[in-house]
Amino acid sequence: MELTTAGWLLLALASALVGLAKGGLAMVGMLSVPILSLAMSPVQAAGVLLPVYVVSDIFGLIAYRRHWDRRVLARLLPGSVAGIALGWATASLVNDAAVGGIVGVIGASFAVMTLLRPPAPDAAPRQADWTRGTGWGLITGYTSFVSHSGAPPYQIYVQPLRLGKETYAGTVTVYFAVVNAVKLIPYAALGQLGADNLGKAAAMIPVAALSVGAGVWLVRRIPQRAFYLFITWALLAVSLKLIADAVM
């Protein structure tokens, strides 16, 4: 479909949010599909933005190539691949809004509990364990496939590990780079990566690349406590948006 001037502006804004997410401000990327859905169907919006995610991942990987936690990725990715496969197998049966609403309730509950009872400064970080990692990885992979809303379940697992802010940003970047690369296969099989969508995505590469740089710049200058406070409030805001979409 052809985009109006307003449609291209919305696509540029959505692509900028994707870039900021890949620069380390992960939660803001979840706003991209809802914003672009103002100009096209949510299904096409997800298809157009997936290549933007993948290209932005490359820039994010370059920026955070030395800042990521192998243990976290090892425990999350097996379940995540299974979650993507489950999403692909049930693609014709799933109500995207309902899934988003469930994710929103979980994310909002976690954010509220975190804000009401923040961890003590000297509290020991939680260890990255296989049971929780596999379970939350499965949920993250599934919700990422059906609605690009994998960030809340990911954050619920990783935030209590209390990684350094750059390690957190790098780990989320590497993790979703792998997840998005795996998602290319089923998205192509479902016809979401046609020439029209790819052309629109290609036009947004400069916007996304500049936004990745802006995200990295912000992460490196925000104090760690403020960084975690920001991502918790962002999780709450996005979760409430998912709940609202499900109710509507």
Describe the structure.
The protein has one domain. It is built from eleven helices and no strands. It has helices at residues 5-22, 32-36, 42-63, 70-89, 96-116, 130-147, 151-158, 165-189, 195-203, 205-221, 224-247.
* Molecular shape: globular
Biggest sheet architecture: none
Mean of residue pLDDT values = 85
**Helix/strand-derived class?**
mainly alpha
Helical stretch tally: 11
| End-to-end CA span | 26 Å
Specify the helix fraction band: over 70%
Give the domain tally: 1
Classify the beta-strand content into a percent band: under 5%
Listing every helix as H and every strand as E from the N terminus to the C terminus, the arrangement reads HHHHHHHHHHH
- Unreliable spans are none
Count all strands and give the number: 0
Rounded radius of gyration (Å): 17 Å
InterPro entries: TM_pro_TauE-like, TSUP
Main location: membrane
Transmembrane segments: 45-65, 72-91, 97-116, 168-189, 201-219, 226-244
GO cellular component, one term: plasma membrane
Element layout with pairings:
Layout: H1 5-22, H2 32-36, H3 42-63, H4 70-89, H5 96-116, H6 130-147, H7 151-158, H8 165-189, H9 195-203, H10 205-221, H11 224-247
Subcellular location: Cell membrane
Main location: membrane
Membrane topology: Multi-pass membrane protein
